[in-house]
Amino acid sequence: MEFRKDINGLRAIAVIAVVLFHFDASWMPGGFAGVDVFFVISGFLMTGIIFRGIEKESFSILKFYIARANRIIPALAILCLALLVFGWFYLTPFDYRALGKHIGSSLTFVSNFIYWMEAGYFDTASHEKWLLHTWSLSVEWQFYIIYPLVLVAMRQFMSLKMMKTAILLGSVFGFIFCVIATYQWPSTAYYLLHTRAWEMMIGGVAYLYPFSIQEKRKKLLEWIGLALILGSYWLISKDNPWPGYLAIFPVFGSFLIIQAQRNNSFITSNIVFQKVGAWSYSIYLWHWPFVVAIYYYSLDSIFIYFGIALSIFLGFLSYKYIEKIKFRNDFTSVFGYLKCKPVYFLCITGFLGSFIFVENGINTPIRSIANSEEAKYVSIYHTENYKKYLPKAFMEQCNFFDAESLSAKVDDISETCTTNGKGGIFIWGDSHAQALSYGIRSTFPNVHINQVASSGCRPLIKKDNESVEEYKRACDRSNDMAKHKILDIEPKVIILAQRIDHDKNDFNEILQYLYEHNLGAKLILVGPVPQWQPSLPTTIARRHFNKDDRVINDRSFNRNVLRINSQLHIDYDNSEIEYFSMIDQLCNKNGCLAKVDDKNTPLVFDYGHLSLKGSKYVVENMMKDIISSYL
What is the full DSSP assignment across 25-50? Predict the structure, then answer.
């Protein structure tokens, strides 16, 4: 097929958007849609290769796979090796282990599944993952594996015309499914192939059903396509459900530009876009680690410009010296494919990453960073290590949800949770209420304290219609138990606490419930705790290990809690509900209190659960007088 300058220029339009969005989302709020543009281009090119081979009865699935491996693996493997070398000297075992895991998953093209299970794409924690951007390569590779197999199988009992129709219909139904899935399972829809395949199939439709239009109308088609793509870059943001129905704009825009076939267009064929388009894959590979480095080390914004420049420069080098290597793909026998060099790149680098993961980030003296005080600190407060102190402190026996198996418990909670005498304090909420309960019990040892607090469960009077099924089952049981036990215990103070999503609750419903049953308990609504991603101990170890640096203003701070706090003030400051603001108590214009003493003891042990000392600190120093006034 003739080289398409318009498609190469379209690659530039895609990669520029992605790079600008990642380095500073305010520059191009919807720049992430550039990935969708890449998917359309990929679908167009792959469909062309497969159908031309099928039509000539010369298509080889193995040769197709090897050609894709030659194209994708070498540059990716070199990036992974560079990160492994960097990590050896600069990453703690905890972070190096994560990098090893992500390298292994990226080179086996399953990283989209890993990231889907770990965090949402737009979560702050995602900026800690050096290879997050490889999720899209995994989606493409999975498409490359399945698509030719399906088409070759279809050819056994279908005509080419029927196959083309099937791809067209598959694109339509795939889009409809994508729209539904985006609202039902947003993280799944973002990362996995079954909701992205339609975008690549639309590219296939562009190849199979080329437009035949007059030259003067091609320019109009191109401009409409460009307007749809650029409009999605600036009018859509990460706050919109994605991909969903909005993805039709960049996808259809790309479809129109491909259909316009304007190989002499100044927009896509200018020298700058042609160079950037040629380097686009390697630019895409290299830009994200620089984004992470800026975030990881909390560098000044000036480094954004250095990061962009280095991304382009390394992208150029990678294209010239790695991508342009002509690896052999014309093997004559099955055993000949064992000579495919990129596969060895994959195996060696993937093995190194997996070994680092299995060996817990090479936590041995041969790596000086592993012996640092910062590394030891992260290990102490790593969630899995710290959790061994929590079951008794959190009153785990009062939890209807099993956080280990992520399922609702079969049995009821222990009777000791709600048989500690009448009056006193009743603690109701989720795992953040559990964390707070430790400080309450330590501060009020002679007060009757009862508790129903289940992981992931907001305190509600009505049924939970927001959570997924397993949480819903646990939360409905938890809230029903709390409502009934409050009537028996008649507490003087009811403390409500949850992680976020306070706006999804109407706490006045709980107040009304008390009125209806003639209970005079005082409701104290505790606002969200300051939260950091991926965790406060990690943030302290990386950038704030100075013990005198107790108040932290850091990029890893989750500013969504500030919005929640402001809204809770509006809703409850003049209410009969006592609103206790953690944010007001712990934060000021200089940042938030992150350490409860001069020994680097963190306020929270993970992203936002109060540590044991943090819980005591908050209750003894900030909540004691308020609670005491109602007892």
Answer: TTTSTTGGGHHHHHHHHHHHHHHHHH
Work out the burial of residue 448: count CB atoms within 10 Å of its CB; fewer than 13 is exposed, 13-18 middle, 19 or more buried.
middle
* Domain co-membership, 334 together with 408: no
Residue where one domain finishes, among candidates 369, 399, 422: 369
pLDDT in the model for residue 388: 74
Highest mean pLDDT among 181-185, 523-527, 607-611: 523-527
Q: Identify the CA nearest to 35 among candidates 144, 132, 150.
A: 132
Same domain, 500 and 600: yes
CB 557 within 8 A of CB 573: no
Please spell the DSSP secondary structure of 363-420, one letter per residue: -STTSGGGGSHHHHHHHHHSHHHHGGGHHHHTTGGG-SEETTTTEE-SSPPPGGGS-S
Q: Are residues 330 and 407 in the same domain?
A: no
Beta strand pairing call for 591-593 and 522-526: unpaired
Q: How many domains does the chain have?
A: 2
- Percentage of the residues of the chain whose pLDDT score is greater than 70: 97
| DSSP code per residue over 460-502 | -SS---SS-HHHHHHHHHHHHHHHHHHHHH--SEEEEE-SS-G
- Would the pLDDT of 326 be above 70? yes
Please determine, for residue 286, whether its predicted confidence score (pLDDT) is greater than 90: yes
Last-in-domain residue among 369, 401, 435: 369
Is 129 domain-assigned?
yes
CATH number of the domain bearing residue 581: 3.40.50.1110
Q: Which residues of 50-89 are buried (b: 16+ CB within 10 A; e: fewer)?
A: bbebbeeeebeeebbbbbbbbebbbbbbbbbbebbeebbe
Q: What is the pLDDT of residues 157-189, one digit of tens each?
A: 889 999 999 999 999 999 999 999 999 888 889
Same domain, 444 and 317: no
Is 377 a member of any domain? no
**Domain assignment of residue 375, yes or no:** no
Q: Is residue 191 part of a domain?
A: yes
Q: 465 lies in which domain range?
A: 385-628
Nearest to 542 by CA among 73, 127, 112: 127
Task: Check whether residue 528 and residue 457 sit in a common domain.
Answer: yes
Collapsing DSSP to helix, strand or coil, 558 comes out as coil
Q: Three-state secondary structure along 406-420?
A: CEECCCCCCHHHCCC
Q: How far apart are CA 133 and CA 66, in angstroms?
A: 23
Closest CA to 582 of 605, 604, 555: 604
- Residue 233: which pLDDT band, with cuts at 50, 70 and 90? very high
Helix axes 61-90, 135-155, angle to 10 degrees: 170
Say which residue, 130 or 128, is predicted with more confidence. Answer: 130
Query: Are both 139 and 164 inside the same structural domain?
Result: yes
Strand bridging mode 587-588 / 591-593: antiparallel
* Chain segment 527-573, per-residue pLDDT in tens: 999 998 778 998 898 888 888 889 998 878 888 899 999 999 999 98
Same domain, 344 and 439: no
Q: Within 13 Å of residue 25, how many CA atoms lie on the same side as its CB?
A: 12
Angstrom distance (rounded) from CA 113 to CA 129: 14
Q: Are 493 and 613 members of one domain?
A: yes
pLDDT band at 1 (very low <50, low <70, confident <90, very high): low
Distance between CA 602 and CA 418 in Å, rounded? 31
CB atoms under 10 Å from CB of 358, counted, come to: 12
pLDDT in tens, 389-446: 777 878 889 999 887 776 888 888 899 999 999 999 999 999 999 999 999 999 999 9
- Does an H or E element contain 445, and which? none
